[in-house]
Amino acid sequence: xxxxxxxxxxxxxxxxxxxxxxxxxxxxxxxxxxxxxxxxxxxxxxxxxxxxxxxxxxxxxxxxxxxxxxxxxxxxxxxxxxxxxxxxxxxxxxxxxxxxxxxxxxxxxxxxxxxxxxxxxxxxxxxxxxxxxxxxxxxxxxxxxxxxxxxxxxxxxxxxxxxxxxxxxxxxxxxxxxxxxxxxxxxxxxxxxxxxxxxxxxxxxxxxxxxxxxxxxxxxxxxxxxxxxxxxxxxxxxxxxxxxxxxxxxxxxxxxxxxxxxxxxxxxxxxxxxxxxxxxxxxxxxxxxxxxxxxxxxxxxxxxxxxxxxxxxxxxxxxxxxxxxxxxxxxxxxx
Length: 335
Description:
Elements: E1 2-5, H1 10-19, E2 26-29, E3 47-50, H2 58-66, E4 71-74, H3 84-89, E5 93-95, H4 102-118, H5 120-128, E6 146-150, H6 154-165, E7 169-173, H7 179-183, E8 187-188, H8 191-197, E9 200-203, H9 217-222, E10 227-231, H10 240-249, E11 252-257, H11 279-284, E12 290-292, H12 301-319
Parallel strand pairs: 1-2, 1-3, 3-4, 4-5, 6-7, 6-9, 7-8, 9-10, 10-11, 11-12
Helix pairs in contact: 1-12, 4-6
């Protein structure tokens, strides 16, 4: 099958080619992300392989369907960037990678917590300038602190397990309770109570209409003063302007982000020689208690290997007419 791989980086090509045993599929790699302007590249393709920042709204889906594309193979678990109703109406098949390495994301979330708490990023820069002063680098013991996990699926539960290992008290919020978290002693509470009692809050819930801007001005006001807020899930869970005000007031003591609500114009690209026009993002970078990574929580050898292997297997299932366990059901999507 001829597959166009959009938003290709060197590592995508390396792992996908390794998974594409004996060249069973004709993979055509494109560096640009998929947009209406780049959709012309889909001419002659049966499938496209897309990533989190590729544009998959109704206009793009219509354009690629007209060019013969029948399959969208996502290299991600989330599909909030796909217009599902349009995909259904165009009779497109949507496949995803539901789990590639929950350990990678959970471990990165904890790395952000440790780095912010002990100011590792600031200490690193100081020592490189021969400044060995400890002023301003004071942290706190994680042992005995309360960690709030919002979304206790696989990644949230693994984050909770790591923090439990530090001796933290666990509170959680989810629509259903995870038995593995209950065994660790997690107490499920309401969101306002979680915000009010947690020293650290880590977000691990999917992006849906109900969770859009879950962290807004009201949520910030409910937070325990000085807490650490971590987001390795989806950028739009956070109202960045509300969080910026929380940082300025001291309500939020530390902020660790691996995702950002307007990241599609920033992340995965080298913009070091450009002037970034996003003033909200630039304002975040001025805070000494903010640490941002460019959507790299998933970025381990294990995860990339699993993503590539599952993606190729998904495409093969489609080509051979087999039911694919990773197909996104579009039957119940509202018009």
